[in-house]
Amino acid sequence: MTPQEVQELVADVQRRHGESDSIEVKAARGGTPKRLYESLSAFANRPGGGVVLFGLDESGDFAVSGVGNTQRLQEEITHLASSEMEPPLRPNFAVDEIGGQTVIAVEIDELSAIHKPCFYKPAGLPKGAYLRVGNTNRHMTDYEVFGYLSGRGQPTHDEELVADATLDDLDRTLVDGYLDRLRRTRPRTGYLDAPIEDALIRLHVCRRDGTACRPTLAGLLMFGKFPQEFFPQLMITFVQYYGTTEEEKTPRGERFLDNQRFEGPIPEMITRAEDYVMAAMRKASLIEGVFRRDVPEYPREAFREALANAAAHRDYSSYVRGSYIRVRMFADRLEVQSPGGLHGSVTVDNLEDEHSTRNARLMRMMEDMHVVENRGSGIKSMLQALRDANLEPPKFDDRRASFLVTFRNHTLLNPPALAWLNQFADRPLNDRQRLALVYLRQHGQITNPDYRRLNRVDPLVAGRELRSLVESALVEQEGTRRWTSYRLQVSPDVPSQIELSTEEKEILDWISEKKSITNKECRQLLGVGPTRAYYLLKRLCDAKRIKSTGAGKGRSYSLP
Q: Which of the 8 DSSP states describes residue 550?
């Protein structure tokens, strides 16, 4: 980290008047702060790592107060990181002077998945392990520690046999259908024609238990007559709320509009939940020729992919077999939440390209039965379906104890957003940058990974185009390097008046004299093509300077 980057981090903290999930502030005027191991552990376990800034006074609005003993502070942090943390850490130090006071930035790199969780050795696990949540550090739970440890290898919870179940608890029709499908796709696999018990054992649908043959968890979940007889909570629930929060009630005082649960083997459970939730969605009508097509709030393909992923990748360990997959529909969003965070080396930023399967046997069965797509294509299909529907990408949230996918039902390029965007029509922006501006207007912040997911570009293109937005004074940058984010620098409000171009003034003068104008008359008046005429008329409509009447070739425009 360079001195310039240290200054940028300090300025960022002072501008926002607070810490962030990647930056923590310590005074250190009177010596090395206590309990620094909490910060070291939390940042080493955090995706992207983090920075501890020494020499700022949090109680004094983050003014630079300086470090008391620079040399001693670095020595004590180095000793703590290398001798008392497990695994040992190698912090990077950057020292700079700001206003005559010394500031030290200590950069903690994220550990690889096979080395997490990092913890303070004297306290041990789980007491010595921490997570960064917002701008605070908190103890990991036993389950969160378990999640990291199990992520170092290949879990086998889906291969465990179900002690109380027998072959009679499997649906023979489903089993026969599975075997028939495999015989067609794997014609040279001889064991598929062996006695059924032997074939199912080779396929890990069953396992030997002494002389008995019992279903594995994966086999029971895929082909069981009623898996919830043995695991009541391995189901999908659906709750539809009236407003945008769980607390908001209907005019009749009800907390929710609908409450359902879906049980059975995984393929049936997913299909029933998918059909029911899709039917509960609001629909918009689209006229295509003489036919009408109902368009749901959320694309079916995207929602089904989220459901299938939740069933395939959730944690089936004994820790969370009492937890279920939750689908929640609010007025503005649809959520799918499953037990267990992301597995192995997969993170929120790389889940489109990185693949690590928690439930290898279950995933193979789901692939064979076409419940999920081929590995690696599902998330990309989800994103494409949302783009095709003019919806923004989903928000992925790894909470370690669970994984949450959130779909928003507003289209980014709606009329108010376009009216707001039109004020920057004179700026040299491409369509990707315009889309990012609308995203910023809605969410307040965007990162390089957000931009990449929104526009399907690589990191270099995203970085270049985001910097161009900064140079245009539309966006301001916060943080530096991998902690960089961007915020809107202009007002998100739709301007009440737009500055009229010469062409627009000519259109208004025509309407004032002739009472109305058509697209054809506009083209003749200005000597432009139909696309330019449409743009100018729409811009005036969006600004409420004119209104449209009629449709198609009969549409005309007049003063409101």
A: S
Name every residue whose Cβ is closer than 8 Å to that of residue 440 and which is 6 or more positions away in sequence.
446, 475, 486, 487, 488
Cβ neighbours of residue 291 under 8 Å, at least 6 residues apart?
none
pLDDT digits (tens, 9 = 90+) for 139-149: 999 999 999 99
The 10s digit of each residue's pLDDT in 483-516 is 888 999 998 887 766 667 788 889 999 999 999 9
**Measured on CA atoms in the order 143, 124, 132, 457, is the torsion positive or negative?**
negative
Mean pLDDT for 310-338 is 96
pLDDT digits (tens, 9 = 90+) for 326-346: 999 999 999 999 999 999 888
Q: Counting Cβ atoms within 10 Å, is residue 484 exposed (0-12), middle (13-18) or buried (19+)?
A: middle
List Cβ neighbours of 192 (8 Å cut-off, separation of 6 or more): 179, 182, 183, 186, 199
Phi, psi of 156 (to 5 degrees): -130, 25
Question: Mean per-residue pLDDT for 433-457?
Answer: 92
DSSP secondary structure letter of residue 374: S
Asked if 118 and 40 count as a contact pair (C-beta separation under 8 A), the reply is: yes
- C-alpha 510/C-alpha 105 separation (Å) is 64
CA–CA gap between residue 391 and residue 377 (Å, rounded): 19
Residues 6+ apart with CB under 8 A from 389: 295, 298, 299, 302, 411
Q: Phi and psi dihedrals of 322, rounded to 5? A: -90, 5
Q: How confident is the model at residue 376 (pLDDT cuts 50, 70, 90)?
A: low
How many angstroms separate the CA atoms of 67 and 98, rounded?
11
Task: Please state the separation of Cα 556 from the chain's center in Å.
Answer: 44
Q: State mean pLDDT over 528-544.
A: 84
pLDDT at 272 (0 to 100): 97
Angstrom CA distances, 315 to 140, 197, 326, 401, stand at: 17, 27, 14, 9
Cis? peptide before 495, omega within 30° of 0:
no
For the record, the structure tokens of 470 come out as: 């900064």
Give the span between the Cα atoms of 474 and 297, in whole angstroms: 31
